[in-house]
Design a protein that fits this description.
The protein is 4% helix and 37% strand. It is built from 1 helix and 12 strands; from the N terminus they run ββββββαββββββ. A 4-stranded antiparallel β-sheet has the order 3-4-5-6, with no helix packed on it. Strand 5 and strand 6 form a beta hairpin. It is globular, with a radius of gyration of 18 Å.
């Protein structure tokens, strides 16, 4: 329940002890990113916790709460455990926090003035998986969803997607006859 902060030269800078915050100490926090002035704490989403994350300063003042999108939250909480791609994902672009919040719909940004903007919107059309249909998330299903980490440059967004049989040359598992 704390973050030990070091400089790039391995000099100890301080401790951010969010375990002393009654509200944050009860959240299923799993990752964080630091900007120049803030920490964004990523939270696990489940049927008890609706927040994707929290923005705090170095004195653990809670500055902003970011909720998982309500329409997706109602669907994903039907699962006993979430698929990894349903969890929010954080990354940084310059000194802004980016958050893929919800199931493959959008990436938001928390700006220096603590405002939230939508940066990217995804629309997979007929290839959008139905969150209430677990068969849409099998390796051979013809639906698209984001997997793994996200990176951004000045001109590009780097993401890995499950495409299953939609790929021009579907991958084959060694020892299996079917394409995935």
């Amino acid at each position: 329940n704390r973050i030990l902060e070091y400089s790039v030269n391995c000099d100890f800078k301080g401790v951010v002890n969010f375990g002393n915050n009654d509200y944050l100490s009860k959240q299923p926090l799993c990752n964080f990113r630091k900007t120049e002035n803030y920490f964004f704490l990523l939270s696990g989403v489940n049927n008890k916790y609706i927040h994707s994350g929290f923005l705090i300063d170095s004195t653990v003042n809670l500055l902003k709460r970011v909720e998982y999108p309500k329409d997706d939250y109602e669907k994903v909480t039907n699962y006993q455990s979430l698929y990894s791609f349903m969890f929010p994902r954080i990354f940084k672009f310059r000194d802004e926090i980016r958050l893929k919040n919800g199931y493959n719909k959008h990436i938001i940004s928390i700006n220096r003035d603590l405002s939230i903007d939508t940066v990217y919107i995804f629309n997979f059309g007929k290839y959008t998986a139905d969150l209430l249909n677990s068969s849409h998330f099998l390796s051979r299903s013809p639906y698209i969803w984001n997997r793994f980490e996200i990176f951004e440059s000045d001109q590009y967004l780097f993401m890995i997607f499950h495409v299953g049989p939609l790929a021009d040359k579907p991958a084959k598992m060694i020892g299996m006859s079917e394409s995935i």
